[in-house]
Amino acid sequence: MNSIIELAKWILLCFCLSRCAYARRILDEPKIHFMNAADIVQNNNPGLKTYCHNASSKYLTHMWRTMTMDLQINSDSYVLYDGKTPQEILQKYDANEKLWSYFDTGKHRQFKINPFEDTCIGVYIGSPSESGYIMSLTETRINVWKLTMMIMGIIIFWCAKILSRNSLFYYTCGIIFGVTLSLIILIYMAGKLIPWGKMYLVFATSMSLYIAKLLWDNTQVIVMQYREWLMWYILVTSLISFVICYRFGPVTNTRTKQIIQWFLQLVGLALVYHSSHFYEASFSCCIVLILFYNFPKAAFERSKRYWRNVFPEKRKLLSEEQYHQEGIRQTRKALKDLQNYCSSPECNPWKTVLRLKNPIRFARFMEGDSHLLEDEIEEHEEEVSKILDKDEYTDDDDSF
Fold this sequence. Notes:
The protein is of the alpha+beta class.
């Protein structure tokens, strides 16, 4: 009997020691993790754990940089908190201010975070058996979607005037708007099928958003399984939208076209501004875009002058042979321009002849003869030879 009691004591002691070691290990485990790009943290213990990313420096080369926190968990029994510091996460945990979201997919969550701001995500799990999950941080140096947003915004802003007056753009937008609006109406009517007392409107709106989210998450399944129904729905709603647009016809009022142009330009600027988390740079792009659109020539000339002041053009000096050839080329060009001017209606030939000392020589020049006489050519060659001889003589004296 005593041996059984002793054995039970030993078993109880071992159990208490293991529980103490487990509790000590949980207490010793860090509750705050500061993560960098490509970091992966695995958690196997319950409680509140905070994952933070410190703000990165802002450079133009990081303009389309994005960061994503990826929570991989096989359970739905977790609570999320968001904030800028671990202290803020702890305050929200004490106040039970959860990260509000209409629909938690649970098993896989992604958090798009601003790489240029301090961001923290808190994950709380109360059950030890469901506490296993992995948190990872990935970096995208150039987000293709963000870059595409900026390019599309610039194109829409710059071509807004053309698009607002284009019939094809009018019918295309009308069909897209009709299909989208019909889908929104169907979703809202489906949400209204479930009444909820005094909070009927709020609940109907919530259910509509839930159905919209459910359809968005299962888009691929719907397209694959209900392809024919979806195709007929888009075809019918597109045809109805086209008939309505054709009935009212394209916009003809000048002010209405101007309003559409302004709206498109605002959409383009919004796309450019939200194409980067580096909002200072994207806002500067909007300002530059507006300046170039409204003052294209002045802005181009100022940019050109600024570029020449910062990066002056290197002047290449001509050799003696190149200088001689350039002189011959420019002289021929000037004589040709003179002949063209004298042959044009802008020149009064009689006044020109009265001012000349030798009109016959001018007439021969206009007919294609040389503008120099043989005596003048010989005199010029003699002067050139004298100058060359003098230079050679001077060089010989300097050698001594």
